[in-house]
């Protein structure tokens, strides 16, 4: 009995610690969003940021309904000195025709098309980008996914953050307004659960970066071995950020979000993406096994039990109140990240939020069940530490 009592007390302590940590994350995220995001910069922080040339690397594969409109936003950037390096692996890829159309439409923009890639490892994105990276002529490289769209001042916003001690500037991933419930589900996730962890990690000094939109110093990457040094990893963005941090450089977050605007999306695609990301985190960071307790429903159960055990409060009443408070804080955070009115109703938000939260544990268990990853046209077996090997069909 003494052992059982000790275990119960330990679980109660864990519940109260969990309560403190999670609500600290909520507050940090909400406050950071309100103070930092969507703020107009009236002046450039220093001359270097204004004058630095930028080489934009665009990995492209396939075409979706929004590709040409997304790409075109990069040809109309309001920035004095940059080049666009369009990288396509396969010469028969329909993205080649899209690139050629834009090159013809904007002949005054410094842009080039690279076809064929260069096989340097198992990561298809790195292989695709290699020719563009080797041909980059500026000291800053901006790796930005094909599904991202930007505003005319996005690059100026990012270079404003590239001060003397900063080696990497990244954008908070978010989702553009689109029609359909799958789009709403995706927008709710990238406006609630994801930024809460992403922002609180960066605020507390943990290097948490996604590679959707990253501006980096090329000489620092070259010191780490260049892009080829990261071709053995699937999550190349994590290891590139780690290499920059290990060399003493700081990170900064842009005031504009990295706006995902893929024209191809569904609930199944969203779920597969979340499972793939979870698999990567589990293999790179073993502490990810505790991730489910940071989700609303499971956390509320644990904290509710702790409150019942110590204070004899009704566990289910506490659970419902805690979930409601979480729901409200998530809505506040989402509206802050949106920076304007939402394109869906509060009822749509409530339904999408409930479904997303209900999916969380199932996604985590699915990631544990199968360690292989299907990404682009390949399948990969993950190893501890983040490396991977390609699974070849025999």
TrEMBL record:
Matches recorded under CDD domains: Glucosylceramide_synthase
Listed GO CC annotations: Golgi membrane
Task: Give its E.C. classification number.
Answer: 2.4.1.80
Pfam entry (one): Glyco_transf_21
Query: What does the record give as its pathway?
Result: Sphingolipid metabolism; Lipid metabolism; sphingolipid metabolism
Domain of life from the UniProt record: Eukaryota
UniProt KW keywords: Glycosyltransferase, Golgi apparatus, Lipid biosynthesis, Lipid metabolism, Membrane, Sphingolipid metabolism, Transferase, Transmembrane, Transmembrane helix
Topology versus the membrane, per the UniProt entry?
A: Multi-pass membrane protein
Note the SUPFAM superfamilies from the entry.
Nucleotide-diphospho-sugar transferases
Which reactions is this enzyme annotated as catalysing? Answer: UDP-alpha-D-xylose + an N-acylsphing-4-enine = a beta-D-xylosyl-(1<->1')-N-acylsphing-4-enine + UDP + H(+); N-(9Z-octadecenoyl)-sphing-4-enine + UDP-alpha-D-xylose = beta-D-xylosyl-(1<->1')-N-(9Z-octadecenoyl)-sphing-4-enine + UDP + H(+)
- InterPro entries hit by this protein: Ceramide_glucosylTrfase, Nucleotide-diphossugar_trans
PANTHER family for the chain: CERAMIDE GLUCOSYLTRANSFERASE
Q: Which family does it belong to?
A: Belongs to the glycosyltransferase 2 family.
According to UniProt, the name of this protein is ceramide glucosyltransferase
In its UniProt entry, the species of origin is given as Channa striata (Snakehead murrel)
